[in-house]
Amino acid sequence: MQKQCATSVWYRFALLGMVFFAVLTASGQQELQAIPQFPLASNELTIRSHAEALKPFTVAGECGTLVGQQDGSFEAWVFPVKLLSHFRIEAQLADYDVPIDVNEQAAEIEVAPDHATITYSHAAFTVREILFATPCDTNGTGVMALFQIDSVRPVKLTFSFTPEVKRMWPAPNFNTPSPEWVKRGESGYYILHTDAEDLAAAIGMPGTQPGILAPYQERPKVWPTQLILSFDPKRDAGRYFPLLLAVGNNAESAKPAALAAQLERLNANAAQLYAKTADYYAHFFDKRLVAETPDAKFNEAMKWAELSIDQLRVRHGSEVGLVAGFYSSGDSNRPGFGWFFGRDTLYTLFAVNGYGDFALTREALEFLIKRQRDDGKIMHEYSQTAELVDWQKMPYEYAAADATPLFLTAMEDYVNASGDKNFLEQHWDAVERAWQFERTHDTDGDGIYDNSQGTGWVESWPSGMPHQEVYLAALDEQASGAYARLADVVHKKDEASAAEARAQKIASTIEKEYAGPMYAFSRNTDGSLDKTATIYPSIAWWDGHYALKQPDAMFERWASSEFSTDWGLRDLGEHEAFYDPISYHQGSVWPLFTGWASLAEYRTGRTLSGYAHLMQNAGLTWSQDLGAVTELLSGAYFSPFGRSTTHQLWSSAMVLTPAIRGLFGVTPDAMQNSIMVDPHLPADWNEATLRHVAVGKDSVDLVFRRDGASLLVKASGSQVRLVSRDGKTGKDGELRLPLPAVEIAIPHELPLPGSRTAQLKVLSQKEDAHSLHLELEGQADSQYELPLRVNGAHGAIQVEGGKLIAGAGDVGMQRLKITFPQGTGYQRLSVRATW
Predict the structure, then answer these.
(1) pLDDT above 60 for 171
(2) Residue 405 and residue 475 in contact, taking contact as beta carbons nearer than 8 Å
């Protein structure tokens, strides 16, 4: 009810703005007008923080993005064109003869799903810069900024920017655009002309005057492009001054009259445009998955991950695809990874299916299918301006080999979750061609898809590019199994049998050729192995159907400080000769890898380390680009790379997938109207709820509640079968699962920026009916008191390697005190509890 009321308020203000503009137009005025202030939507997810000048922010929508820094400077894109960059503000107060750099006054940033606000605070004035993405209602628009000003005396604000009007790389561009001031009434706007008749832009703000407009005769020099606003608090209080941005990206829309009309429409409809954006986010979680747990931060991280993925939907003509991420472009013409990426999309769709946005999955898959190569290979990269160049002659579209197997696994995951057999049948030709490409591109005769068709994972490697990575081999096994099961759905029994046989052969070959204490990184053409210790074998547990057979030593090393930092997992062990914590592929930390490993740990019963890694990814939601998760970080210090794309698609996905399929252990099977549940709630959670778990066209709420020695799972909202991992079927929407007799909880919190790794690591955990054995790693002489839960009745607990302390609060909760041996650096400790 509150949402409906709030929405109606926004629309009333939107209508007020439309009436206000209509009156002005009727009286013959054509100049842009400041608009009455309207209320911004309130949202419980809003993140508020002191502004840190060098930290980034992103405001993104289907048709544009604003990317910048928390001092309020930004660049603006209306896809696929970069309009302006280096947007900054200077103030000059009346009778106060000191110029004030407003960006230096940035005090607070507020990030909500529908907008971001940067507040500049000075003793004499407050300026709020409100940024939002507009709906794609009109071509050539996509983002807007509103400026709310309060001042004790008149103030002149100078908004300076660099005009760009450049199409996204690799489209050809021209010289710096020529700004032309078009006077309308007492103010006006800029038309930014390029050397092309099919590309121009317009930028305006009500009530402003131009800055320096050098005459042709003047000596060449770079002058700032400026909008100068004289704000009088008696006259102008209570108004927004919108920064209006329009692009003409064809011969007709690039005409000055068309651009002027765009600015006028934006001015007239600013309140309505914001209202539509706010309304979209007010109802965003009406049908998408929501987690309700005792950990409020975890709940928020789950929601922000869904929002962050959705904000990377980009319209391309009549299509919608997912771009890999956004970040300031600097002196380049691509905002981070602002292209459409195949494998990034396909990894992310597992999360999208998990939170139930099947429409987005269909759009994303069809975007890739449309660009599938004739021989079946799935695209890797596609620029937003690909149609403006000879894209096929460039090396990007099919550069990677892994998008093709990932397409098969993602298609199976969609069909399982949605039950959409018609979609599979409609696109069976694409599935078949992808399968034929994969199974016929084995260049050395071992029956496994290899790197001859592009990069597997690494794009560079010190000893030379690998011939066949274990990463790609494990994906091939999973893709073969996925195709087998898809073929079975469409009643192609022979194809299903052949693909399943291939999957089994690949699994056997991997064990024969790659197995060891650490599975090898890659196999060379002569059959020799590169035994570099990497995180890449963890992908074997991705789809839940495959597993390596000898992983124990490998998991122990991944969980240790050799791989596991306090903010995620390195891709390379720090003891390797060419380990480099600031390299792209040889020692940095990627939330992507952290998500792979967390899911693998949950699926193999290593739930404590799985939880630690999941919560590291979740915590990154607040560490840099607020509400989003960054691309990669240093392997040595808790600090992201300077060039890390800060709003990264698959990084946000790696909050969701390990949580939904690992911690909660939820795998819907809409074809069977069932949900497999294999939950691993933290020991200090008594209960949790997942709302809107999608199973085909229906959704259910799943409630997980401890009940003595059992965990009770209840489904409500639809008739769906609950099935345990071992095949046990629930009754009347309930399933009772046995809990371990004793459980341990571990702390989780990201360290301070710049920290080295120092936190507790759980290297292994082994449980049986009468014991729990933990191998731990911690800093020398460090102490922890870990929550210990006793489930059900049994004899007294005896502990070796620690001491039990009587608990307080929840029944069944005690504390386990442990102290690591003296020494330097990390020390190991074995803890065994028996009963």
Answers:
(1) yes
(2) yes
In whole angstroms, give the CA distance from residue 414 to residue 416: 5
- Rounded Cα distance between 455 and 270, Å, is 46
Mean pLDDT score of the chain, rounded to an integer?
A: 94
- Cis preceding linkage at 80, omega within 30: yes
Helix, strand and coil percent figures for the chain, each rounded to 5: 30, 30, 40
For residue 247, name the pLDDT band (cuts at 50, 70, 90).
very high
Q: 423: closest CA among 365, 478, 498, 481?
A: 365
Cα 298 to Cα 434: distance, rounded to the nearest angstrom: 38
3-state SS of 610-627?
HHHHHHHHHHHHHCCCCC
Quote the percentage of the chain above a pLDDT of 70: 96
| Tokens found for residue 317 | 């003509």
The dihedral region occupied by 811, where left means phi > 0, alpha psi between -120 and 50, and beta the remainder, is beta
Rounded Cα–Cα distance for residues 430 and 366 (Å) = 10
Q: Which amino acid is at 155?
A: V
Per DSSP, the residues of 506-553 read HHHHHHHHH-SSS--SEE-TTS-EE---BSGGGGGGSSSS---SS-HH
Strand partners, 818: 784
For residues 703 and 716, the answer to whether their CB atoms sit within 8 Å is: yes
| 469-484 tens-digit pLDDT | 999 999 999 999 999 9
Check residue 6 and give its pLDDT. Answer: 38
Structure tokens at 832: 């065994």
Largest CA-CA distance found in the chain, in angstroms, rounded: 95
Contacts 24+ apart (CB under 8 A), 734-739: 735/677, 736/707, 736/710, 736/711, 736/712, 737/677, 737/679, 737/710, 737/711, 737/712, 737/713, 738/709, 738/710, 738/711, 739/706, 739/709, 739/710, 739/711, 739/791, 739/792
Q: Are 398 and 379 in contact (CB under 8 A)?
A: yes
User: Which of 640-649 are b and which e, b meaning 16 or more Cβ less than 10 Å from the residue's Cβ?
Assistant: bbeebbbbbb
| Residue of 154, 119, 138, 98 lying closest to 40 (CA atoms) | 119
* R_g (Cα) of the chain, nearest Å: 28
- What SS3 state is found at 36? strand
Between the alpha carbon of residue 437 and those of residues 105, 372, 476, 732, the distances in Å are 57, 11, 11, 45
pLDDT class of 808 with cuts at 50, 70, 90:
low
Q: Using alpha carbons, select from 408, 403, 396, 414 the residue that is nearest to residue 378.
A: 403
Q: Two tokens at 622?
A: 């607040």
Beta bridge partners of 643: none
Residue 434, C-beta contacts closer than 8 angstroms, at least 6 positions apart: 372, 376, 377, 378, 404, 407, 408
Q: pTM above the 0.90 mark?
A: yes
Query: Which of 301, 303, 272 has the alpha carbon at shortest distance from 289?
Result: 303
- Dist CA 516 CA 722 (whole Å): 38
Question: Taking residues 129-150, what's their average pLDDT?
Answer: 92
Residue 28's Cα: distance from chain center in Å?
A: 48
CA distance 627 to 203: 29
Q: Provide the CB-side half-sphere exposure for 288 (13 A, CA).
A: 23
With bands split at pLDDT 50, 70 and 90, how would you rate the model's confidence at 23?
very low
